[in-house]
Amino acid sequence: MATKKSKSSNKSQKTTSTKSKTATKTAVKPELEAPKTKTVEKTTTNKSCLSGFFARKYEGKESILTIFKNPKFYGSLLGELIGTLLLTLVIFAILPFQGGVYNIINNVFAVIAILVAVYAFSGSCLNPLVAVGMMASRRISVIRGVMYIIAEIIGAWLGWMILNGFHLAGGETAIDIPGMAEVVEGKFWPIVMVELLGSIIIAFVFARALKYKRSVFTFAVVVAGGIALAYLVGYVASAGFLGVSGNFVMNPAVALMLQIFPTAGENFGEILGGICQALSIYALFPMVGGVIGFYLSDFTSKLSSEE
């Protein structure tokens, strides 16, 4: 019996010793494995303020093969056409040589109403310089921007036809805007600077207004205020300092309707030169101003780390 007890006690001692060994192994194991664990340190990289500056800002991919299959696109074109038609009627009254500063302030409410009306189904550009700025800053696709510009030109032409029809029906002559038919000699660059400055203001304010596009009224008020500001600055600069009699439009689509092209000249070269001069003043430089205005807005947003 004693031998059996001693054997059982030896077995119990062996089991306890094996348990103690496994316990010591498990206790020692973390200490041995501790040096093997790698500490991953998070490295923070300072991104440049221009990172993603030229990134695409519109959703989806649009091409000439896919955009015309979207029914909403035709609604956008119709909105641009109708909105520019109404805006043309307003600009004829806003132009400083037809009403001065007071008329600009009064027509701000008309611009707000137009933007609110076409907001739901249009890009609310209503100006080729804005469309070009949105294309350059990649807010809309190139094909959409080009179609917007075509719709805006057609809308401005329809607006001019309506106004001209009322003039002729009332027994008056066709609309003739003084000072727009030809550029005053030696005043090319002053008029260019007024158009460029006003276009930058309009494009910059429009780009900033896109931040508030969830609120229709706020968006319309900011854009209308930017247009009024551009015309006020243009009026003061042109009439007060440059002496060009308020000879500016700041909307290439409307400018094409305001008889900016010469109709007579000594030869074909003179007529062609006048057409190129008018296009550069009232179309090319305003579109350049639109690109500058949108890029300026994006650059300030990047510098201020605005999401």
Work out the helicity level. 55-70%
Global mean pLDDT: 79
Which CATH architecture? Up-down Bundle
**Compute the gyration radius: what is it?**
34 Å
Can you describe what's shown?
It is a single chain. The chain is mainly alpha-helical. It has a single domain, classed as Glycerol uptake facilitator protein. The chain has 10 helices and no strands. The chain has helices at residues 2-33, 71-94, 100-106, 108-118, 128-136, 142-169, 188-209, 216-242, 252-255, 268-303. Helix 5 (128-136) crosses helix 7 (188-209). The longest helix has 36 residues, at 268-303. The N and C termini lie far apart (87 Å). The relative contact order is 0.13.
Provide a short characterization of the protein structure.
The protein has 307 residues and is mainly α. The protein contains ten helices and no strands.
Name the features:
Glycerol uptake facilitator protein; single chain; mainly alpha; 307 residues; 0% strand
SSE blueprint and pairings:
Elements (H helix, E strand, L loop, with lengths): L1 H32 L37 H24 L5 H7 L1 H11 L9 H9 L5 H28 L18 H22 L6 H27 L9 H4 L12 H36 L4
